[in-house]
Amino acid sequence: xxxxxxxxxxxxxxxxxxxxxxxxxxxxxxxxxxEDMSQARSVVIRNISMSGAxxxxxxxxxxxxxxxxLMRTGPGGAASRLHxxxxxxxxxxxxxxxxxxxxxxxxxxxxxxxxxxxSRAG
Length: 122
Prior knowledge:
The protein is mostly beta strands and 122 residues long. It has one domain (24-117): Thrombin, subunit H. It has one helix at 104-111; strands spanning 24-33, 40-48, 52-56, 66-72, 79-90, 93-98. The longest helix is centred in the C-terminal third of the chain and has 8 residues, at 104-111.
């Protein structure tokens, strides 16, 4: 599955970021579990926001458009499960949207970023 994503540009010709919330660039371990629990695989969360993430999944023929992403806040930390919908795929990397917003506290504990920097200005 591959989608061409149109890029909107501003008056200065620079790309306009249309994301609903800012992304934090961190390499965090995660695990994809299919909804029917038939398969699971470790992935790397490349960046994450309250509304979605980019994941390095490698080659996974037949990866469905929806699945669960499991994450831990640290060694021995509580696991969080997020329902994801695939929005785009470029090689081994996919972009997903979360069905429900990631709580700011969980995003802070995963990334160490303060609450002030999590919301987009404007």
